From TrEMBL:
This is Glycosyl transferase. Keywords: Transferase. It comes from the Bacteria. CDD domains: Glyco_tranf_GTA_type. Gene3D superfamilies: Spore Coat Polysaccharide Biosynthesis Protein SpsA, Chain A (3.90.550.10). The lineage of its organism: Bacteria, Bacillati, Actinomycetota, Actinomycetes, Micrococcales. Residues 8-170 form the Glycosyltransferase 2-like domain. PANTHER family: GLYCOSYLTRANSFERASE, GLYCOSYLTRANSFERASE 2-LIKE DOMAIN-CONTAINING PROTEIN.
Length: 273
C-alpha cells in the first residue's frame, strides 16, 4: 500500500440513475480503498438517491455517504457542499458518469505524497466509444499538449481531479458562483488555484473513464459548451491566447469524434436487428 494522505471522493449527481451505480462501484472497488466516498444528490427526480442507498446496503463496509443539496439547483453549490463536507486530506472530485480506473486512489495518494502538489488531474478513457485504449492514448497526448501550451498555468478537469483540502479551504471564499451558468466550473477552480500560487500537475497515471455523451449534442449546443472557456476567461478578465488551446482543440476534433460515435451507434443498431 502506498503511504500517503487520506482521500475523499466527491460525486455531485442530478438525475443520473443510468450512470451512478457504475460510478460508485468503481470508486468502491479500488486497489487501495478511498477513505470516504460522498455522493451529493441535487434534487434528483429519478432513482439516483435510491440506487445509492441500495449500494450502501449492498456494501456496508464501504465508506459511502449520501448527502442532499436541496437549497438550489446547480453543479457548483452541489460540488461545494460535497467538498466542504469531505474529511480527507485530498479531495477527489469526479462526475456522476465517471468510472475510475481501479488504481485511481492509489495513484492519487502517490501523486500527493509530494508536498509541492496542491492539485492534480489526468487523462480520460471514453468508455462508450470504440477503440477505447487508442482513445485513451490520444486523450493523454492532447491533454499533455494543452498543458505544455499553457506553460505555467495548469488545468484541472472536473471529470478527473483532486486537490488538497487545505487548497480548497483557501480558494473556497473566492470561487465563482456563476449564477448565469455560463462558465466551466473546473476552469474557474484552476484559475483561482493558479492565482493563489497553488501548483496543479498533470499525471498520465491518474486515469478515469467518462461518457462521450456530450458528442450527442447538436453542433450549436456543443460549440456553446466549448465556448464556456471563453466566457470563463472573460469573467476573470483574462486575455491570454495560449489559454485558449483547449477551446481550439475540442472544437477542431468535434467533427471527427462525432463521426466516429455516429458510426459506432449505427453498427450497434445493425447488430441488434
Amino acid at each position: 500500500m502506498v503511504a500517503g494522505p487520506t482521500v475523499s471522493i466527491v460525486i455531485p449527481a442530478f438525475n443520473e440513475e443510468s450512470t451512478i451505480r457504475a460510478c460508485v462501484l468503481a470508486a468502491i472497488e479500488q486497489t487501495e480503498p478511498a477513505d470516504e466516498i460522498i455522493v451529493v444528490d441535487n434534487r434528483s427526480t429519478d432513482a439516483t438517491a435510491a440506487i445509492v442507498r441500495a449500494m450502501q446496503r449492498e456494501h456496508p463496509q464501504a465508506p459511502l455517504l449520501l448527502l442532499s443539496q436541496d437549497a438550489e439547483q446547480g453543479l457548483i453549490p452541489t460540488r461545494n457542499l460535497g467538498l466542504d463536507a469531505a474529511s480527507g486530506e485530498v479531495l477527489g472530485r469526479i462526475d456522476a458518469d465517471t468510472v475510475l480506473e481501479p488504481d485511481w486512489v492509489e495513484q492519487v495518494r502517490r501523486i500527493f505524497t509530494d508536498p509541492s502538489v496542491d492539485a492534480a488531474t489526468g487523462p480520460m478513457i471514453y468508455y462508450d466509444m470504440p477503440l477505447r485504449r487508442w482513445g485513451h492514448r490520444a486523450d493523454d497526448a492532447l491533454r499533455k499538449a494543452v498543458h505544455r501550451l499553457a506553460r505555467d498555468f495548469h488545468y484541472i478537469f472536473g471529470s478527473n481531479m483532486a486537490l488538497r483540502a487545505s487548497a480548497w479551504r483557501e480558494i473556497r471564499p473566492h470561487v465563482c458562483r456563476d449564477l448565469a451558468d455560463e462558465m466551466h466550473e473546473d476552469i474557474d477552480l484552476s484559475i483561482h488555484l493558479h492565482a493563489r500560487g497553488h501548483t496543479a500537475v498533470y499525471r498520465s497515471t491518474m486515469v478515469a473513464g467518462m461518457s462521450a455523451r456530450r458528442l450527442d449534442d447538436n453542433p450549436r449546443d456543443y460549440y456553446s459548451y466549448v465556448m464556456r472557456w471563453e466566457r470563463t476567461y472573460a469573467a476573470h478578465g483574462i486575455d491570454d491566447a495560449k489559454l485558449r488551446a483547449p477551446m481550439w482543440v475540442f472544437s477542431a476534433i468535434y467533427p471527427l469524434l462525432k463521426g466516429v460515435r455516429w458510426s459506432a451507434k449505427r453498427r450497434h443498431q445493425r447488430v441488434l436487428r
